[in-house]
Amino acid sequence: MDLDHIRQQISSTDKDLLQLLANRRQLALSVADAKLAQNKPIRDQKREEELLVSLIERGKPLGLDAQYITKIYHVIIEDSVLQQQAKVQGQLNGENGPVCRVAFLGRQGSYSYWATQKYFTRRAEKLIEIGCDSFNEIVQAVETGHADYAVLPIENTSSGSINEVYDLLQHTRLSIVGELTHPIEHCLLGVEGTELSKIRQICAHPQVIAQCSNYLQGLSNVKIEYCDASSDAFERVRKAQDKSVVAIGGEEGGKLYGLDVLGRGLANQKDNVSRFIVVARKAINVAKAIPAKTTFIMYTGQQPGALVDALTVLKQHGISMGKLESRPITGNPWEEMFYVDVFANLDDYAMTRALDELNRITRFVKVLGCYPSEDVSPTLITQQTS
Length: 386
Ligand SMILES: O=C(O)C(=O)C[C@]1(C(=O)O)C=C[C@@H](O)C=C1
Known about the structure:
Blueprint: H1 3-37, H2 45-59, H3 66-93, E1 99-105, H4 111-120, E2 126-132, H5 135-143, E3 149-156, E4 160-161, H6 163-171, E5 175-183, E6 187-190, E7 201-204, H7 206-211, H8 213-217, E8 223-226, H9 230-240, E9 245-249, H10 251-256, E10 260-263, E11 273-280, E12 292-299, H11 306-316, E13 321-329, E14 332-342, H12 349-361, E15 364-372
Parallel strand pairs: 1-2, 1-3, 7-8, 7-9
Antiparallel strand pairs: 3-4, 3-11, 5-11, 6-9, 6-10, 12-14, 12-15, 13-14
Helix pairs in contact: 1-3, 2-3, 11-12
């Protein structure tokens, strides 16, 4: 068989695979309806485990190993769960209309651009992109009604919390309505023919620079140029057409600007992942069938044990905390606002009780939003496979 012929067969098999994946997605969406009708949660890890075990058994005589099957099905099931969650949420809260206007940092190719695409393709509305130059501009776009939603990076596994976004949340009337995580794979990108040894200037967003600090410390005689977004860095390099000027950003984004990859894996952490939040003017409800997260801020005052007392309230109501962050309160030197993420639905009885009590024992509490948790942890096989 000649190469072209084999490739035709591969392409045809891939076409069939895509059709099968699309069919599977449709079936999963029908499952969501059935589950809602029966009052069942979307996620069923027992079913997932049974499915994985039976697929591994079926794969063996076909020469497909367990690891390969497990890896592929973790991706398929994660997609299935998130598609179902988006459908259920759309039904519960109603979509905004035929289109949704979403503000994000940068233009085509920025990390926030990809995160926005990923999140909003699950929804029925047509996405209208509103690229912005700063986090403040993004929030303003939604506050003024120019955009329906904003996508904001809030934390990263290499650089930690994004303080500017936390501070904006303290003063906005917007609510958190969603979250998503997105892998951030930093590459060094330049125009064709750029050589690593000749680089004199690196363009990147300050968050990117923080996430690649170890790599950057190892370079000498290189000027850092701060940019509004990775897409801005790409644009500058593309325009300069200078082989001593490079950008740091994602490979896919760089390609849109005609840039070549000179180096990969620049982040301090191997698993460099950012968590983004989605904010809107109106708060949403989260269906009981979906695991929910609630984020609130509180000012406890500075009396001894004040924070311990507040966190004890959560413990007493059996509420697990995902993250605790603190930021200075503007205008009140040395006083801190605490940001708390909990795994609970705002409508849960325990959460209502806990918030009532926190309102009583702290100086200030404000709920920033309740939203579906996108943390679809992979189901592990506990039973023995033969
Ligand atoms: O069978 C179900 O209950 C589904 O929702 C489908 C599915 C899947 O994609 O296979 C997805 C999520 C559940 O956790 C289990 C399985």
